[in-house]
């Protein structure tokens, strides 16, 4: 199992949009529509934002959206706010009740 | 509201066994809808899967750790546990327990699949002599 590939960092100004990519393989992201995204603030446990590629649980603002094309999933955050500054991780089901995480992306709100 | 809480020693000596428990409150661990997972995060690094267990005790492990890991479940205590043998400094990390959706909910139907919806707060385990 290799980690999914995410950019180490992205940044944007308040009100702008940013997109974080998550690239896997045909064994995980490419085959399964079970990509999830997590937000982690420093010293805190991850909080899930997106499941099944593009679905948002109740309570997560619609500024957060997910998508997938081929072996790459993406998380887009629109209308950036200061509190969005955090680390973001993607995860994909990889078959046989295993999963893999991305390496994480640090979002800086300028 | 479901709550998960990790417990165990914060310091383990090299070559010894790291043992942690995760106590689940606010809901039953005995459900076919979920598996119960362990995930770790070395300081300043990303998340790494360790493995999971379902309510029957069936386990699934990350191949890179499989030879050293045992995950078990005690439904009478609403608790699941992690044992990691022969630890080294590389095993120093924050260890999280989490609930993993792996099946349809008997009441709600499809609620999504293969994501972690509840996490413990995490516990730092340092491997050092």
Give the secondary structure arrangement, pairings included.
The complex is a heterodimer of chains A (110) and B (129).
Chain A lengths: L8 E4 L5 E6 L11 E6 L6 E4 L13 E6 L2 E6 L8 E8 L5 E3 L3 E5 L1
Chain B lengths: L2 E5 L3 E2 L5 E8 L8 E8 L6 E6 L5 E3 L7 E6 L4 E6 L8 E9 L14 E4 L3 E5 L2
Parallel strand pairs in B: 2-11
Antiparallel strand pairs in B: 1-3, 3-8, 4-5, 4-9, 5-6, 7-8, 9-10, 9-11
Offer a few descriptive terms.
heterodimer; A: 110 residues; mainly beta; 6-stranded mixed beta sheet; 3-stranded antiparallel beta sheet; B: 129 residues; 4-stranded antiparallel beta sheet; 0% helix
Structure description:
Chain A has 110 residues and is mainly β. Chain A contains no helices and 9 strands. In chain A, the strands form 2 sheets. In chain A, strands 1, 3, 4, 7, 8 and 9 form a 6-stranded mixed beta sheet that branches. A 3-stranded antiparallel beta sheet of chain A has the order 2-6-5, with no helix packed on it. The termini of chain A are far apart. The mean pLDDT of chain A is 96. In chain A, 38% of the residues are buried. Chain B is mainly beta. The interface between A and B is medium-sized, with 27 and 26 residues.
Q: pLDDT below 50 for ≥5 consecutive residues: which ranges of chain A?
A: none
Number of separate helices of chain A? 0
Low-confidence stretches of chain B: none
| Structural class by secondary-structure content of chain A | mainly beta
- N- to C-terminal separation of chain A? 35 Å
Q: Largest interface here, residues on each chain? A: A-B, 27 and 26 residues
Order of H and E elements of chain A: EEEEEEEEE
Bulk shape of chain A: globular
Oligomer: heterodimer
What sort of overall outline of chain B do the alpha carbons produce when their principal axes are compared?
Answer: elongated
Taken as a percent bin, the fraction of beta residues of chain B is over 45%
Q: How much helicity do the residues of chain B have?
A: under 10%
Radius of gyration of CA atoms of chain A, rounded to a whole number:
13 Å
Find the count of extended strands of chain B (DSSP E, 2+ residues).
11
Number of helices of chain B: 0
| Relative helix content of chain A | under 10%
Q: Proportion of β residues of chain A?
A: 35-45%
Q: Compute the gyration radius of chain B: what is it?
A: 14 Å
The secondary-structure element order of chain B is EEEEEEEEEEE
Average pLDDT number of chain A: 96
